[in-house]
Amino acid sequence: MTMLQKQTIKNPIMQYGGEGVSWRTLLSSIHNLLSPQGVSCLVCGKMISAIVRGYPELCHVCYASIPWIMKPRCYTCGRPVGCPDCSRQSAGSRNFILNRSAVAYNATMREWLGQYKFRGHEAYGPVLSRIMGWAMTRMLRELATEQGGISIHFDAVTFVPISEERLMERGFNQAELLARGAASVSDIPLLALLERTRHTEKQSFKNRRERLHDIQGLFRLLPDVAERLESVMQQPSHKPSLRSRFTSQYNATRARYSILDKPSDTPLTLLLIDDVYTTGSTIDACSEVLLEGCSQLGRKGEVYCLTWARS
Ligand SMILES: [Zn+2]
Ligand SMILES: [Zn+2]
Which of 121, 180, 216, 229 is the most buried (most CB within 10 A)? Predict the structure, then answer.
């Protein structure tokens, strides 16, 4: 884990948390001494007078404009406000267990994501990725609290794929970058598991009905999913966390640990990443395919989702 990532985990809470003022003042002075002179803010272009810990690209004003979702009000989709979507009857048939998002998708966050995704402003990448790392830490903490202090163990982190055409045009998949940010926090294997069956126009221009129609049969498993899962899980360095819920099933005397060797009633637990949660139809469709994949491997599956922004 790099220094930057370590800083990221602590950042938003510690920044405005209950630490002593003298420490903050001292740290801020040290940051100022160490920071190169004349660095301008990535977002507003103004000179940065004091470095924000973990986010050296941003001035304090732009950092303070990030609408962190500190307390999701909807347990299922992670929305920070009251949520009619999840109280609908159809919501009970969702294929993922829950979604959490790092930030609310307001105009500022739309602009930041757009700068990276559509306008090729690569310097936004590390910022978005660190924000995702923070959300991951927060989600792990929330789930552990819910399970009486027992950490959840994700077998793999994966992401919503983009089409070949989009990949050629853009050169990268933003969800993969975000997944990298999330995976790095807990050293979880990052795996591409899905692909798109066809190219579709941008979802953001479509209404709910059009999106749902578009999404039918849009995703499928990559042909070598079983091998991908196996190859990652058999790396000798990969062991479940000490406090994982699977600890009792892990035989420490075995040199190699295999995901598919776990008892068949133990679900494969996957974390799915995307950039924006709007209706949830994309991550739901991907979750459905992932669950089918688990079942093809003779295993139950559980899919949790983490998205960068919640609209
Ligand atoms: Zn700024
Ligand atoms: Zn909801």
Answer: 229
pLDDT > 90: what percent of the chain? 54
Check residues 10 and 109 and name the one with the higher pLDDT: 109
Q: Which tens digits make up the pLDDT trace of 221-235?
A: 999 888 887 776 655
Ligand nearest to the CA of 77: 2
Q: Which ligand is closest to the CA of 63, given by its number?
A: 1
Kindly identify the ligand whose nearest atom is closest to the C-alpha of 43.
1
User: What is the 90 CA–ligand 2 centroid distance (Å)?
Assistant: 12
Domain boundaries, the chain: 1-65, 72-310
Tell me what pLDDT residue 93 has: 82
SS3 string of 90-155?
HHHHCCCCCEEEEEECCHHHHHHHHHHHCCCCCCHHHHHHHHHHHHHHHHHHHHHHHCCCCCCCCC
Which residues lie at CB < 5 A from ion ligand 1?
41, 43-44, 59, 62
Residue 115 token pair: 């700068």
Place of tokens 């002593």: 20
80 CA distance to ligand 2 middle (Å): 9
Q: Which tokens in the block code for residue 143?
A: 């789930």
| pLDDT tens-digit readout, 239-260 | 444 333 333 333 333 333 455 6
62 Cα–ligand 1 center, Å:
4
The per-residue b/e assignment along 101-119, b for 16 or more CB within 10 angstroms, e otherwise, is bbbbbeeebeebbebbbee
Which ligand is nearest the CA of 76, by number? 2
**Closest ligand to residue 56's CA:** 1
> What is the spatial distance between Cα 86 and Cα 94, in angstroms, rounded to a whole number?
9
pLDDT for 86 equals: 82
**Which of the ligands is closest to the CA of residue 79?**
2
pLDDT band at 11 (very low <50, low <70, confident <90, very high): very low
Taking the centre of ligand 1 as the mean of its atom positions, its distance from the CA of residue 109, in whole angstroms, is 13
Cβ–Cβ under 8 Å, residues 184 and 1: yes
